[in-house]
Amino acid sequence: MRPTWRTVGVVGVAGGSILMAAASGARSLNALAAPALIALLVSAVQVFYAGRPEVDRADPVPGHPGESRTVELTVDGGALARVTDAVPPGVAAEGYDRRVTLPATVEYEVELGARGAWDLGPPRVVVTDVLGLFVRSFEPGGTATALVYPPLVDLREDDAVASLLGYDTATDRQAFDTIREYAPGDPLRDVHWKSSAKRSDDDLVVKQFVSEQRESTLTVAAGAATGHDDAMASAAASLAVLAMEAGLSVGVTCPAGEVATGRGEAHRRHVLDLLARTGPGRPARPVRENADVVLTATEDGVTATIDGQDHRLPVGPTPPEPPGDDDGQAGATAESGDESPAEQEVSG
């Protein structure tokens, strides 16, 4: 606990009043000294017994660069406080520095920037009294992760990708071939209700089209040289999402790990989560040899190896710039230039 510059002024007034009263006998000056001393005592007790606040928070919803998310943290306690959250360089934030009355829920907006898992927090909580005479700083802990997915690139116009996913041939959804058991992620429009109603096990079956029989799975092995993992992650995410939208069951292996083949929205999130966290390196040779597509990112760009043939993908080799201004707005605990007198601590 420390006094503020406002405290120095109050002490000066009280001390001066006492000295003048003692020297001149002017009792009226005590009317200034007594309230000042009482204010100092009450303020000191209020801040001293404020207690250490606790912070409860959750991770914001993951997203792609350029998207906005709301960060929320709940701070308990029972005093006036200034709550300042620590903002990492991978996001741009507004409103992360708030003056509140505890307990309170603090919300602010962030713009997702560079791919990765970025730690938000821990916050700094500066507790003060109603007069702003004393402050007490706490770092109660509590961090959240802002997960930024790789940026997606439209690969539908790429000849090699179109051939791989069947976009170069007409997809005739009227060319019904057979039925199969329902799998998570299959669209409801493909459910064959008449056949499903006849099954004794109550399981659903879906229509299988001729185009779906050509390929049902796609495995991707992605690797990158040092400094080019952003391009690799972007290419792998773009290809995987496009393949899942085409109805394929997709599996991805990268330096950060593996997501087995699957489909559906939950599987899509698992793939993007993995690619958001991956770094440079490459999968093991057996994985690369058995994959349908091998992606390699170097200083020259991203190369896709399909059926033994190398093809350059239209994905840039350089990572995106993190958001924020040039004066280092993001970093450790953010600083603000409009500090109130209640938070200007006396040094020394």
Automatic annotation (TrEMBL):
Transmembrane region(s):
32-50
| Presence of keyword Metal-binding | no
Domain DUF58 spans what residues? 179-285
Q: Which organism is it from?
A: Halorientalis pallida
Presence of keyword Lyase:
no
Specify where the region named Disordered lies, as residue ranges.
302-348
**At the top level of its lineage, which domain of life is listed?**
Archaea
Q: Spell out the protein name for this chain.
A: DUF58 domain-containing protein
PANTHER family given in the database record: SLR1927 PROTEIN (PTHR34351:SF1), SLR1927 PROTEIN-RELATED (PTHR34351)
What high-level taxonomic lineage is stated for the organism? Archaea, Methanobacteriati, Methanobacteriota, Stenosarchaea group, Halobacteria
